[in-house]
Write a structure and sequence with these properties.
The chain is α+β, with helices and mostly antiparallel strands. The chain contains eight helices and twelve strands.
């Protein structure tokens, strides 16, 4: 026998029914209000938005670059030591000035060759007064160099970017776990991970994206847009995921290639011609007979 009054029983059943409806609505809402649980899911959600036309491809690339900066480390973008233009602490201006002018760089690490340590950073503009022979006798390197920022290879790029902005530095010296110099990294290197390659007045340019160097062989800039490449070579490379030839070639290698590494894609042979700052610069392209 049920002693509970009918009105209370009915009210209880009504509350239970409403709770079921509320839970079901919540479940439906959650299914349509997807919240990424990690950066990989977030990146996938952003790419899906781009495919649906919500985001332009350029915006997508920048967002993905920003996510990449939060996970990549200094070692992934640094300029290796063999490619760095150093000034030795005991060098005379007449010895290093030609090297400075030829490089076109604006900042140079000053190296103490006795202990292989960095003494500081020399700005190229500080050398302007000493180009004149009459001022060269007053040159004192110690009074011109600025303190150098030292960072480990393992530092995350987003943290490095914050530190460079806070300290108003444009360059940092990269050290390995033993404190040895392994390269340098600039604020430009980090920003290029987000916005793509930044060309300046010192970057070499052939004046054309595609240049014929032999019969049926071409030297192609990695920055060549996919549609421009397809029109020239009558090919059908997809521009769905990549804007430039370099992006497609890097994707097919599935690793960072070395000079003269080769790969075949859709009837064309691609040979890495040159690299710059851990990026593909130029590619030799020929048709496969």
């Amino acid at each position: 026998m049920n002693d509970e009054p009918p009105s209370i029983s009915a009210e209880s059943n009504g509350l239970g029914f409403r709770k079921k409806i509320k839970d079901r609505i919540k479940e439906i809402y959650q299914n349509f209000s997807y919240k990424p649980k990690n950066k990989q899911e977030l990146a996938g959600s952003i790419r899906d938005s781009s495919e649906r036309g919500v985001l332009e491809k350029g915006t997508l690339n920048m967002i993905e670059g920003a996510l990449k900066v939060s996970t990549d480390q200094v070692r992934d973008v640094m300029i290796p030591r063999p490619q760095v233009v150093f000034i030795e602490k005991d060098e005379k201006p007449e010895d290093f000035l030609p090297r400075v002018i030829k490089s076109g760089h604006s900042r140079f690490p000053v190296l103490n060759t006795e202990n292989d340590k960095i003494e500081g950073i020399l700005l190229a503009k500080e050398l302007l007064p000493f180009i004149s022979a009459e001022n060269i006798s007053t040159f004192e390197l110690d009074k011109l160099i600025r303190p150098a920022k030292l960072v480990p290879e393992s530092k995350k790029l987003n943290i490095l970017l914050d530190e460079l902005k806070a300290s108003r530095n444009h360059m940092a010296i990269v050290l390995d776990e033993y404190g040895d110099i392994t390269g340098i990294v600039t604020i430009e290197d980090v920003l290029e991970e987000i916005v793509g390659e930044i060309e300046d007045e010192h970057d070499k340019d052939t004046g054309t994206l595609i240049k014929e160097i032999a019969k049926d062989e071409f030297l192609v800039s990695a920055l060549t847009p996919i549609d421009v490449f397809n029109e020239k070579f009558d090919s059908s490379l997809s521009d769905k995921d990549f804007d430039t030839l370099g992006g497609i070639v890097m994707h097919h290698f599935a690793r960072f290639p070395k000079p003269n590494d080769a790969i075949n894609i859709e009837g064309l042979r691609f040979v890495i011609n040159s690299l710059e700052r851990r990026r593909i610069k130029r590619i030799k392209v020929s048709k496969i007979n």
